[in-house]
UniProtKB/TrEMBL annotation:
It is an enzyme of class 5 (isomerase). This is Dipeptide epimerase. GO terms for molecular function: metal ion binding; muconate cycloisomerase activity. Residues 156-247 form the Mandelate racemase/muconate lactonizing enzyme C-terminal domain. It comes from the Bacteria. SMART domains: MR_MLE. PANTHER family: O-SUCCINYLBENZOATE SYNTHASE (PTHR48073:SF2), O-SUCCINYLBENZOATE SYNTHASE-RELATED (PTHR48073). Keywords: Isomerase, Metal-binding. Its EC number is 5.5.1.1. Residues 381-400 are annotated as: Disordered. It comes from Streptomyces olivochromogenes. One of its GO terms (biological process) is amino acid catabolic process.
Length: 400
């Protein structure tokens, strides 16, 4: 069989069974790009979930940037390089350094997750073996507890009645600060002092109001506050920490390694929220974790709301490879998407609120029939451009 390679891009905009609301965005559909790379019979599946309010990227801008990626050169490199050698290079330099690429973090994440998955499948390696592990604990845990997130679509009593057991609670702040105080007070009254509680303001507070609000939340029982001020407010964040003594986690402010270094040098935070798509792929995300450890900061493994496949398992691979995260978010794809586009669907044990490593090799997922309608572009090796994918024919009853 002659050598052959192609790429297929899917834009997945699935309606969510339940919405997710926070101060920066109300989300009721997914908005992910999936990329399937096929090289001489080996496949890899990647994903990014760009959010304009986080990195300035959208699915449209990432799609436009992907058109300029020299895919034939990548195909040739995958074909000509021993898989173990190429994986070692990717783990060391990321997709940007390995292939000399430039672009936003979500473009790099899309390509990097697909290539890591492809190489993992070729080598028979699981997800946690595909990401850098410098400084990580030697022992890996068979299961990880995950945090529970209370967004604005759910009241606190229903959350406490239905979403336990609780290992870590993240509260999405409301426009009404009195509601936030009542929420944290109710959580503490029900759960006691053993479960950490974090309030995520999603960049919605001003420096003038944040001082009093952080102090009040701390008195009510909050352990951390996430991203209280406008993105990149380094000096104000440093002053806020010094005046209140409240621990601050940064998310939207820390997208790149340069952002992380600035945060450390400014004394702006106590922890990072590490998210694979936001941080430009699993390799850069792992480097961010290494930086946090060296600086004496904590970190959590977070998710983008409404990830649909490879991003979920890439994040979990990162979590199992770096088991010293103070908490791990597993997402809610099982609640959001009754008909997922990947098989097997990423699972959460809801009776214990834990996750186990995804089955390998690679990130352990394949596209299923629900993905077919979302295919938008195809590029075949040797072709000069991406071409639209025709809409699939309607399924008849006997094929439904």
């Amino acid at each position: 069989m002659p050598d052959a390679a192609e790429a297929v891009l899917y834009r997945v905009e699935m309606p969510m069974a339940v919405s997710f609301d926070h101060p920066a965005k109300r989300r009721s559909t997914s908005d992910s790009l999936l990329l399937r790379l096929d090289v001489d019979g080996a496949s890899g599946l990647g994903e990014c979930a760009p959010r304009a309010y986080v990195t300035g990227e959208t699915t449209e801008t990432v799609t436009g940037a992907l058109r300029h990626v020299p895919l034939d050169e990548i195909f040739a490199r995958v074909r000509s390089t021993e898989p173990a050698v190429l994986l070692a290079r990717l783990r060391h330099e990321g997709v940007a350094g390995t292939f000399g690429l430039r672009g936003g973090g979500n473009l790099l994440c899309l390509l990097e997750t697909a290539l890591l998955d492809l190489l993992g499948r070729r080598l028979g390696l699981g997800g946690a073996e595909l990401v850098p592990t410098e400084g990580a604990p030697a022992a890996r845990r068979p299961a990880l507890p995950v945090s529970q997130v209370l967004d604005l679509s759910l009241d606190v009593e229903e959350f406490l009645d239905t979403r336990g057991p609780f290992h870590f609670v993240k509260v999405k702040a409301a426009d009404d600060f009195a509601r936030d105080l009542r929420t944290v007070t109710a959580i503490r009254a029900r759960l006691g002092d053993t479960v950490p509680v974090m309030v995520d303001a999603n960049m919605s507070w001003t420096p003038d109001e944040a001082h009093g609000q952080l102090a009040a939340l701390h008195d009510a029982g909050a352990d951390l506050v996430e991203e209280p001020l406008a993105k990149g407010s380094w000096a104000e964040l440093s002053r806020l920490r010094a005046r209140t003594g409240v621990r601050i986690l940064l998310d939207e402010s820390v997208c790149t390694l340069d952002d992380a270094r600035t945060a450390v040098e400014s004394g702006a935070c106590d922890a990072f929220n590490v998210r694979v798509a936001k941080n430009g792929g699993p390799v850069t995300a792992a480097r961010l974790i290494e930086l946090a450890r060296r600086a004496g900061l904590g970190f959590q493994i977070g998710v983008q709301v409404a990830e649909v496949g490879p991003l979920i398992n890439a994040g979990r691979a990162l979590a199992f490879a770096h088991g010293d995260a103070f908490t791990v978010e597993a997402g809610q794809s099982d609640r959001f998407f009754p008909e997922p586009v990947v098989s097997p669907p990423p699972a959460v044990c809801r009776t214990a609120n834990t996750i186990t490593p995804a089955p390998g090799p690679g990130f352990g997922l394949d596209l299923n029939e629900h993905a077919e309608p979302w295919a938008v572009l195809r590029r075949t090796e040797g072709d000069t451009s991406w071409r639209p994918v025709p809409a699939p024919a309607p399924r008849t009853k006997e094929h439904a």
